[in-house]
């Protein structure tokens, strides 16, 4: 089983970029990075740093010092309980000053070499993975590797994408927003899976029917093969469209304008599901708490009540009075007054018993 991963650029994505970092002391984590990494890992992703380090080729830093810089990065993250699963770097540059590293390299972004190497060594599924970085070379590398991509456009360095720049799947202003995008994508995927599971027969049936019709008409095998994918196509399109649900480039109003009538009708249900999945957690806990309290009250009154006890005792006395009145009736020395007295007692006590039962019910 392959793992899904998030490939992270290093400079201006995880740590501050003062130009070239040449010593461990220069490593400073960007705000929110440890927490973001913890949350991404909790979603089941391997966290892999992929960074161009032409500083090695330029002679600014040796690979040994680069190793110490990366150890410092891991140490700072570990202090906040965040951990990386791998760090890949490319020391090469075609115009490097150090001969050993002066060369083109498939590892150097925008080439996807580092991502492919990591995928092979760490058993990563690139289709299920993301590439996150602050430059167009990060995005191109991610796209060429087959990953989903997020461009971090820091407010301090915001720039317009050039016409030839690769288009990221999403844009974020910081690593915190990256986490929100990935989480939103997860929720959409889970909802899409749930919808597919609830209506599997309806989707498959038309394909089977068309296949049967093809056999009845005894058309050539090639035509059958051509027609079946056509029938399946709408399902696969629906799956591909799922990520667009989390496309952040459009405002809410723009998204509403693009929605079909069916989507608009389905919107309240989707909103409700999203509330339950995300923001509704607190409400859910409150409702569970209320239900538990109600259950406690019901149990308390159901198990024992002084009123019910008194009513029960009176009921027994009523029965006793009735027995006495019967005994007076069949007695050889029958006295009507005694019978009426006993029956009168029984009636009064019965009323008292009923009163206590009613009072218990109101409580
Ligand atoms: Mg960078």
Polypeptide structure, described:
59% of the residues lie in helices and 8% in strands. It has a six-stranded parallel β-sheet, sandwiched between helices. Helix 1 packs parallel to helix 6, helix 10 packs across helix 11 and helix 12 runs antiparallel to helix 13. Strand 1, helix 1 and strand 2 form a beta-alpha-beta unit. By secondary structure, it is of the alpha/beta class. About 20% of the residues have low confidence.
Name the descriptors:
363 residues, alpha/beta, Rossmann fold, six-stranded parallel β-sheet, 6 strands, 59% helix, binds magnesium ion
Q: Mind sketching the topology for me?
A:
Layout lengths: L3 E5 L24 H10 L2 E8 L1 H4 L5 H16 L7 E5 L22 H10 L7 E4 L2 H10 L2 E5 L17 E3 L2 H24 L1 H17 L4 H21 L10 H7 L2 H19 L1 H23 L2 H25 L5 H27 L1
Bound molecules: magnesium ion (MG).
Short recap of the structure:
With 363 residues, this protein is α/β, with parallel strands linked by helices.
Biggest β-sheet description: 6 strands, parallel
**What ligand species are in this complex?**
magnesium ion
Oligomeric status of the shown chains?
A: single chain
What level of helicity do the residues show? 55-70%
What's the number of helices?
Answer: 13
CATH topology of the domain at 4-183: Rossmann fold
| Count of DSSP strands | 6
Based on secondary structure, the structural category is alpha/beta
Give the strand order of the largest sheet, numbering strands 1, 2, ... along the chain. Answer: 3-2-1-4-5-6
Order of helices and strands: EHEHHEHEHEEHHHHHHHH
Strand content: 5-15%
pLDDT averaged over residues: 78
CATH architecture of the domain at 4-183: 3-Layer(aba) Sandwich
Work out the radius of gyration.
Answer: 37 Å
> Could you name the ranges where pLDDT drops below 50 across 5 or more consecutive residues?
202-269, 298-302
What separation lies between the terminal Cα atoms?
Answer: 60 Å
